[in-house]
Amino acid sequence: MKLIPLPQALTVSNKDFLTKPYIINNIIAEKVAGPEGYRLDIGSQGVVITAETPRGLFYAKQTLTQLEEEYAEQLPFVSITDFPRYAYRGFMLDCSRHFFPIDIIKKQLDIMATLKLNTFHWHLTDDQGWRIQLDGFPRLTEIGSKRAQTAGDGKKVEGFYTKDEISDIVAYCADRFIEVIPEIDLPGHFKAALAAYPQFSCNQLEITVGEGFGISPDILCAGKEESYEFCYSILDEVAELFPGRYFHLGGDEALKLYWLDCPDCQKRIADCGLKNEEELQGYFMSKMVAHLNEKGKTVINWNDGMLGGNIKGDIIVQYWKENKIGREVAIKEAKNGRKVIISPFFSYYLDYPYGMTPLKKTYNYEADGAITDQVIGLEAPLWTEHIEDAEKLWQQIYPRLVALAERAWSNKKDYQSFLTRLDNFNNILNRYNILYCNNPNPYLLPGKLATLKFFIKALSRVEKGNLNAMKKTKEKLKNKYNK
Questions:
Q1: Are 377 and 342 in contact (CB under 8 A)?
Q2: Is residue 193 in a domain?
Q3: Dist CA 417 CA 412 (whole Å)
Q4: Residues 275 and 348 reside in one and the same domain
Q5: For 3, which DSSP code?
Q6: Taken in order 320, 365, 94, 184, is the CA torsion positive or negative?
Q7: Is there a catalytic annotation at residue 165?
Q8: Domain limits at 310?
Q9: What is the chain's pLDDT, residue by residue, as a tens digit (483 residues)?
Q10: Is residue 481 included in any domain, yes or no?
């Protein structure tokens, strides 16, 4: 944001304030600062907004709302020229692990719009629940949307979004210039779907929707041709509900234990001349990407879903996994020309305690210089394994999402100045009855203790079977490829 004082006759003084009510004169289709940019002039003539597009006009009004909060009943005479740092400014909500009703989602969308965030990444499927209604496969919601309990707590979790509700959210977002990206996670994080349709797994055994957490070995069989047709049909029906440019296919944490012994998967690897199971995932994902590309969709994948190195098609890499391999994959894909979305686990994941990810850490994060030129934006994900209600939801999101929103919009980086603006924005959150975290930078010892307690509880909710499957997978991979 660039602030330019108006001519001398209109410079700010004790008397040079515009007092409400005032008139907004909207001037559209004049080139200012790109499709999302605008110029906001406040002076004796009133408030004048100059923007190329309705989107720019909308963002100018959000700035005006924030100025009203800062200056109460009076606005200073000023001229602001403003445009975003990144075209992609996102938030992800996981509604699979715990289900959140439409009114909660709409409240979050309203605040996102005020923050000039323009992308809502909606994580709709996972091991612990399938949340999207599809006419072609009714058992996905009849069975896959319900679990008996969570890690032995005895509390049922169920719910899904009807097609009408999804259309309502898509329209609500469009009014706020927010694009909705559905995520149908493939081929891993697919246990809820396989509970409904076990014939698409490697072993075809009947299973239940995941009740604990961790990385499950119950993933889609990538050997059977029927699995591909099943996924194509799902993607077709989901794509009809979401008119946006992007479609997220997940691809992360696909534990390939059953693929190692599956005759169909091993035959596919041999017939297609693939090196290993990672390349089988790359082959499978390339088929899904091509299918969606034909529909005009650009696919997004988590960076650890690109390990095979053979995925073809129009794909954006979402950089979340920051270990050595994850970083190398992101750099490689960026060098090959693929665009990157930044979502680092240790800085942008909002589900973790503030002792691990304090507000200052979120604000100050900088993308790896090796991928900077390919970065199209930032996104903060919120996974809900340990978030069961709206109160906890808001505590985890705010104020960290405000920090990401500023870094996604503005090239200016000034944490102390940000804290001042945050005080004003908290007044907006108060009007939405958002109980944000009021201690987002805890002292070292209390923060570490809170983080330790979090992880002790989290580990207690991980399924032992998943841990054993991870161990077996490592042993089998070692025996197969390290001889």
A1: yes
A2: yes
A3: 10
A4: yes
A5: E
A6: negative
A7: no
A8: 88-446+456-471
A9: 444 443 333 333 334 455 555 666 666 666 778 899 998 888 877 788 888 888 998 999 999 888 888 887 778 888 889 999 999 999 999 999 999 999 999 999 999 999 999 999 999 999 999 999 999 999 999 999 999 999 999 999 999 999 999 999 999 999 999 999 999 999 999 999 999 999 999 999 999 999 999 999 999 999 999 999 999 999 999 999 999 999 999 999 999 999 999 999 999 999 999 999 999 999 999 999 999 999 999 999 999 999 999 999 999 999 999 999 999 999 999 999 999 999 999 999 999 999 999 999 999 999 999 999 999 999 999 999 999 999 999 999 999 999 999 999 999 999 999 999 999 899 999 999 999 999 999 999 999 999 999 999 999 999 999 999 999 999 999 888 875
A10: no
CATH assignment of the domain containing 63: 3.30.379.10
123, 189, 248, 291: the active-site residue: 189
Q: Give me the residue label for tokens 């679990």.
A: 147
Q: 46's torsion region: left (phi>0), alpha (psi -120 to 50) or beta?
A: left
478 lies in a domain? no
Task: Based on the residue annotation, tell me whether 126 is a catalytic residue of this protein.
Answer: yes
Q: Which of 82, 102, 135 is the last residue of a domain?
A: 82
CA dihedral (248, 342, 336, 304) positive or negative? negative
Distances (CA, A) of 287 to 241, 312, 404: 21, 8, 34
CATH of the domain at 142: 3.20.20.80
Establish if 477 belongs to a structural domain.
no
Annotated active-site residue in 52, 94, 211, 253 = 253
Write the burial class of residue 464 (CB in 10 Å: 0-12 exposed, 13-18 middle, 19+ buried): exposed
Residue 370 and residue 397 in one domain: yes
CB distance 334 to 326 below 8 Å: no
DSSP state letters, 132-144 = B--TT-THHHHTT
Q: Using alpha carbons, select from 277, 272, 302 the residue that is nearest to residue 202.
A: 277
**Beta carbons of 395 and 454 less than 8 angstroms apart:** no
Our count of domains for the chain comes to 2
CA distances, 146 to each of 125, 231, 344, 407 (Å): 12, 21, 31, 38
pTM attached to this predicted model: 0.94
Give one DSSP letter per residue of 54-87, joined into a string: HHHHHHHHHHHHHHHHHHTTEEE-EEEEE--S-S
Domain C-terminal end among 33, 66, 82: 82
* Distance, CA of 150 to chain centre: 23
**Whole-angstrom Cα distance, residue 367 to residue 43?**
39
What is each CA distance from 379 to 5, 52, 86, 206, 319, in whole angstroms?
33, 26, 11, 36, 10
Q: Is 189 a catalytic residue?
A: yes
Kindly state the helix (H) or strand (E) to which residue 254 belongs, with its residue range: none
Write down the catalytic residue from 36, 126, 277, 278: 126
